[in-house]
Write a structure and sequence with these properties.
By secondary structure, the protein is of the alpha/beta class. It folds into two domains: about 300 residues, Adenylosuccinate Synthetase, Chain A, domain 3; about 100 residues, Adenylosuccinate Synthetase, subunit A, domain 2 (Orthogonal Bundle), CATH 1.10.300. The protein is built from twelve helices and 20 strands. Strands 9-7-5-2-10-1-11-15-19-20 form a ten-stranded mixed β-sheet, with helices on both faces. Strands 14, 16, 17 and 18 form a four-stranded mixed β-sheet that branches. A two-stranded antiparallel ribbon has the order 3-4. A hairpin with a 7-residue loop joins strand 19 and strand 20. The longest helix is centred in the middle third of the chain and has 22 residues. About 50% of the residues are buried. Bound molecules: guanosine-5'-diphosphate, 6-O-phosphoryl inosine monophosphate and magnesium ion. 6-O-phosphoryl inosine monophosphate (IMO) binds next to helix 4. The site of magnesium ion has 6 residues, from loops. Pathway: Purine metabolism; AMP biosynthesis via de novo pathway; AMP from IMP: step 1/2. It is an enzyme of class 6 (ligase). It comes from Streptomyces flaveus. Homodimer.
Length: about 425
């Protein structure tokens, strides 16, 4: 059985953690391939709730090997505190594998992220302040620090020196901050080395051998399609590729190995941070979605911006990821509305536009064209099959499927593992 990719089809927080956890019991490996601890994935198992940031959601399934791939950026202090937090709750994390090629989020890059945002003022991106962007920038500029560098003090010192040469100029001369001392950074990083060492592995080799042995590998995206550095609403994006292609580069697995790409799609839309959002609501409906859907960031605690479902975005996600399936989440949150508006197209400067415009200016001007779908009032949280859903909820799902361009193979009707309607098996 080849590999599957599971990724966000909107602006993140679609319920990827729950979906990954659901499949975690039936797969051999769960792999994070991009992003870092900017992610916040909530998994509810029985009466236990877990918030994962850096670790793959598969860490909660004992049979499964969790892997942090080369494309991820790793804050060692966050990694260790997340591991010890899970150990304290009785979760065995000893199977974790961490790529020696993954880049390290250094303390100075967390500083640079925060300072840059402050200086951008009203043009800020609204980042999570975790050092993600500056770390990927260092990677591309070839001055990044990798996990393997923690095991060669001389190389580590040279690399930190090279990175800080330029960075200290910027911090002191442009941003009016104090310079950061090389030895302090090196000392801090070396302090993590021994604790991290047992997890470090050649993950590319491990994953490819696993696929040759017919093991099932699930790639878990962070963030979402519209936050992709290439395909998202640039510059209001994250600095990596959550889209399906990112799984190949971020884990070192060829595209021919991937058989299924599952897009996680919320039954409405949310966004955290700045940037365009055509269906955003500023009225009591938006408030109600936020309240009923508990739409508050897992990582930063910020309120999420809320709006109606946007089929233009869903179609775009199908295209740029080659989606084979959707997992529709949070359908239960829509219970109680008499009518539910769904955005089927945009109006841009008087024109009707059916597809996501590539032009940033056009997208900023896009106004949603809504179709009204009849709502339902019955509690759907106990539904186990599609037939258990009220007729209007079934029709809502069918309409979304038709508009979005890929089959909806599962439906979430609550946060728990078992609050899921499975229509087509993913495995
Ligand atoms: P992720 O970043 O994509 O993993 O999503 P988050 O965990 O940030 O946000 C999704 C939230 O929705 C979490 O609190 C989940 O527990 C919750 N959730 C996931 N699926 C469902 C669902 O079908 N119904 C409801 N009511 N909540 C859900
Ligand atoms: P999960 O995996 C929602 C957003 C930030 C900001 C932008 C850039 O839980 O879906 P960054 O810190 O990455 O440089 O911030 O991206 N963002 C997310 N929004 N869910 C996430 O992750 C996000 N990770 C980053 O709010 O707008
Ligand atoms: Mg999240």
């Amino acid at each position: 059985m080849p590999a599957l990719v599971l990724l966000g089809a909107q602006w993140g927080d679609e319920g990827k953690g729950k979906a990954t956890d659901l499949l975690g019991g039936s797969v051999d490996y769960v792999v994070r391939y991009q992003g870092g601890n900017n992610a916040g994935h909530t998994v509810v198992v029985g009466d236990q709730k877990y918030a994962l940031h850096l670790l793959p959601s598969g860490i909660l399934s004992p049979e499964c090997t969790p892997v942090i791939g080369n494309g991820v950026v790793v804050d060692p202090s966050v990694l260790l505190s997340e591991l010890s937090g899970l150990n304290e709750r009785g979760v065995d994390t000893s199977k974790l594998l961490l790529s020696g090629n993954a880049h390290i989020i250094t303390p100075y890059n967390v500083t640079v992220d925060k300072v840059t945002e402050r200086f951008l003022g009203k043009r800020k991106i609204g980042t999570t302040g975790r050092g993600i962007g500056p770390t990927y920038a260092d990677k591309i500029n070839r001055v990044g620090i990798r996990v393997q560098d923690l095991y060669d003090e001389s190389i580590l010192t040279q690399k930190v020196e090279a990175a800080l040469d330029a960075k200290n100029q910027i911090l002191t001369k442009l941003y009016n901050r104090r310079a950061i001392a090389v030895n302090q950074v090196v000392e801090e990083l070396l302090g993590y080395a021994a604790q991290i060492e047992p997890y470090v592995a050649d993950t590319v080799l491990v994953l490819n051998q696993a696929l040759e042995d017919n093991k099932v590998v699930l790639f878990e995206g962070g963030q979402g399609t519209l936050l992709d550095i290439d395909h998202g609403t640039y510059p209001f994006v994250t600095s990596s590729n959550p889209t399906a292609g990112g799984a190949c580069t971020g884990a070192g697995v060829g595209p021919t190995k991937i058989s299924r790409v599952i897009g996680i799609l919320k039954a409405y839309t949310t966004r955290v941070g700045a940037g365009p959002f055509p269906t955003e609501l500023f009225d009591e409906d938006g408030e109600a979605l936020r309240r009923i859907g508990h739409e508050r960031g897992v990582t930063t605690g910020r309120d999420r911006r809320c709006g109606w479902f946007d089929a233009v975005i869903a179609r775009y996600a199908t295209r740029v990821n080659g989606l084979t399936d959707f997992f529709l989440t949070k359908l239960d949150v829509l219970t109680g509305w008499e009518q539910i508006p769904v955005c089927v197209a945009y109006e841009i400067d008087g024109r009707r536009v059916e597809e996501l415009p590539y032009s940033q200016t056009d997208f900023h001007h896009a106004k949603p064209v809504y179709e009204m779908l009849p709502g339902w009032s019955e509690d759907i949280s106990k539904a186990k099959t599609f037939a258990d859903l009220p007729k209007n909820a079934q029709d809502y799902v069918k309409a979304l499927e038709e508009m979005s361009g890929a089959p909806i193979s599962a439906i979430g009707v609550g946060p728990g593992r078992d609050e899921t309607i499975e229509i087509n098996s993913f495995l």
